[in-house]
Amino acid sequence: MFLAGLPLNTLLLLGAAATLCTVALYILKLRRRSVPVPFARLWETVLRDRESSTFFSQLKRWLSLLLQLMMVLALVLALGDPRPKASAAGARNVVVLLDTSASMAAKDEVPSRLELAKGKVKELISGLKNEDRLLLAEASAAVVPLSPLTDDVTLLGQAVAAAEAHGTAFDLEKGLAFAEDVLSGLPNAEVIVVSDGAFEVPPHLVSGKAKLSFVGVGKYADNVAVTELSARRYPLDKSRYEVMLALENAGKNPALVELSLLGDDQLIDVSQLRLLPGERVPRFFSNLAGANERLEARIRLLEGKDYLKEDDRAFALMPERRRAKVLVVSEGNTYLDAALLLDEYLDVSTVGEAQYPPKGRFDVTIFDNVAPPRSAETGAAFYLNPPEAGSPVKRGRQVENFGFDVWERKSPVLRWMALDDVQVASGFTLKPLPSDRVLGASEWGPILVSGSREGAPFLVLGFDPKNSDLVLRVAWPLMILNAINSFVDQDAEYQSAYRTGDIWRLRVPAGLEVAELEKPDGSRVALPVREGRAEHFGEQPGFYRLKWVGAVSSQAFAANLGDVSESRIAPKTELTLGGTKAARVAGFAPGLRQKYWGYLLLLVALVSAIEWFTYHRRLTV
Fold first, then answer.
1. Which of 97, 269, 409, 614 is deepest in the core (most CB within 10 A)?
2. From the CB of residue 323, how many other CB atoms can be counted at a distance below 10 Å?
3. How many beta carbons lie within 10 A of that of residue 551, not counting itself?
4. Rg (CA), the chain
5. pLDDT surpasses 60 at 273
6. Which pLDDT tens digit goes with each residue over 495-523?
7. 529: which strand partners?
8. Is 76 within 8 Å of 114 (Cβ atoms)?
9. Could you tell me if 95 and 183 are in contact, meaning their C-beta atoms sit under 8 angstroms apart?
10. At residue 3, does pLDDT exceed 80?
11. How far apart are the first and last CA of the chain?
């Protein structure tokens, strides 16, 4: 037997103090009221009562005192929480990782997979034996402990009730690392994963020293999801835009869905699509108008099953139509001037090399055949055929009669462009640094390079466009406007949507110390600002708004489910790590736990009842 509660020394002190108080109260001399009586026989009774009030005569009622001391002893022992040593030797230390990722909100179980999983955890708690201790943790993209490592069944039940699903993926590797840290050095360690298994297991992941068990939930795989949504304005007409989205049928049955596209909560387009089992269908919407800030895609199932509603919507933010300030450093270039006139959202200023840098602050500067020392106030830089001195990228060999043999088609600078038949009379190859990015190259070497020097982005074209037929093609204004847009978007850190499960670093105006974030569910949270950024761990898909405390302005952004694997809700009955299957849970049969302090309290109640009965029957007085 050992004491799991208060230590023995403390119990001895408490017991001694309680015993002395009990005896002192027992022998307390009674103050009796004087009452005149007419009979001598009654005087004899009074004399006997006076004798019973003396120190020694009071102790003669030993049965009453014994019962009271028994109650004191039982109460003191209950505080010590005595338990058998045999149970302590075989006690288990268990960490339960409860999957609270997005797929656990699926309704193929009633009322949901998560609620069924919480019921499984309650069964584990009720099956704890004697000295078993358990820690419950929510596990999604982050691991959040809901309880300490404890055997308190009431506390663990409250922890189970507090668990809720999040719009993120389940990071098994992070969850197991947390469990191994908690159980490090503890005997009989066990990790139990309660999940639907709808996640990807990293191939390098293996089970640690603790025993790994798996409890599966979920029945069906039927689900249709919006897996991608992004938008981009046209560089030549920023009032119009294009949208790309993708739908996926993760189930085993065909599905007919109604797809709705909304801009600023107004319906833009409605269509119906039939998806085969496992099919992914991309959709492209071009030349749209009517949305200034927010885009949303929604699907509604017309035929088939869809057990997860959380991925039936996707959100995107339209790029802001703000005016960009552009500086041109040139001795005169009609082709460049004409290209810049195509965008009404550009404020263009032109100076010669001798007047550079002018007063004011600019977003982008275009250097035409010049490369003066760069000023920080003139923003990002686009160099057209720069001289050797002053160029951020050194020149290579001079070449003639060449073109773009390869170019990066996915680059924002070269989007929508066909460069395979561009002819250049003469120019230079470029020598980029390892950190630079080659966007276009001829057979002789790189001719279009992007990068950054001292935190300032740049783009270098290795030839004079006037020495080529590029200026006679649509690709010329597209290259100029795409470059400006990419610089401006990069500076504003524009994203159609963030991904849940990541830490978002949100830029705020200089000088602010606190920002307020309004979440999609309407709740608000204050975010501290460090180095001009407000950080937030994103867990909810939807539209957010970041407000500056003490200011009127705000910034909107969107977030979507961060991992397409969460939409593939096919449940698993087994978990395999490194070729080894996780065990099935065993040894959690519900039963009475041997907690003697409960019996001791029952003994106190029983002795108290006996003492009350004997007192009123005049047996102990």
1. 97
2. 12
3. 11
4. 39
5. yes
6. 678 899 999 988 887 778 888 999 999 99
7. 534
8. no
9. yes
10. no
11. 38
Report yes or no: 558 and 496 within 8 Å, Cβ to Cβ.
yes
Q: Which tens digit of pLDDT belongs to each residue from 195-251?
A: 999 988 888 888 888 999 999 999 999 999 999 998 888 776 778 888 999 999 999
Tokens 């010590």 belong to residue = 80
Length of the chain: 621
Q: What is the crossing angle of helices 62-80 and 596-616, to 10°?
A: 160
pLDDT of residue 463: 96
Helix then strand count (H, E) for the chain reads 11, 33
Q: Any bridge partners for residue 543, and if so which? A: 558
Distance CA 439, CA 447 (A): 8
Amino acid code (one letter) for 546: L
Q: Which helix (H) or strand (E) holds 25?
A: helix 8-26
CA distances from 29 to 51, 53, 64, 71, 611 (A): 11, 6, 16, 23, 21
CA 272 to chain centre: 33
Q: What is the largest CA-CA distance in the chain?
A: 144
Backbone φ and ψ of 118, nearest 5°: -65, -35
- Give the tokens for residue 288: 């749209």
Handedness of CA 269, 270, 274, 280 (dihedral sign): positive
Closest CA to 486 of 451, 462, 453: 451
φ/ψ of residue 489, rounded to 5: -65, -40
Q: Which amino acid is at 275?
A: L
Spatial CA neighbour of 527 closest among 501, 510, 505: 505
Dist CA 374 CA 365 (whole Å): 10
Alpha-helix runs per DSSP H in 558-595: none
Average pLDDT, the chain: 86
Q: What does each C-alpha distance from 168 to 99, 488, 560, 566 come to in angstroms?
A: 11, 30, 9, 8
Cα distance between residue 345 and residue 236, in whole Å: 10
Q: What token pair was written down for 176?
A: 């197991």
Identity of residue 427: G
Q: What is the mean pLDDT of residues 443-447?
A: 95
With bands split at pLDDT 50, 70 and 90, how would you rate the model's confidence at 417?
A: confident
Residue 54 has pLDDT above 80, yes or no: no
Instruction: Report the 3 state secondary structure along 251-293.
Output: CCCCEEEEEEEEECCEEEEEEEEEECCCCEEEEEEEEEECCCC
Q: Residue 107 and residue 112: Cα distance in Å, rounded?
A: 4
pLDDT for 327 equals 96
Which pair of structure tokens corresponds to residue 91?
């006690």
Q: Where does the pLDDT of residue 56 fall: very low under 50, low under 70, confident under 90, or very high at 90 and above? A: very low
Q: What are phi and psi of 437, to 5 degrees?
A: -125, 125
- Answer for the pair 389, 371: CB distance below 8 angstroms, yes or no: yes
- State the Cα–Cα distance between residues 620 and 614, nearest whole angstrom: 6
Tell me the residue type at 269. Answer: D
Q: What separation in angstroms does the CA of 546 have from each of 499, 509, 528, 539, 556?
A: 16, 11, 12, 15, 6
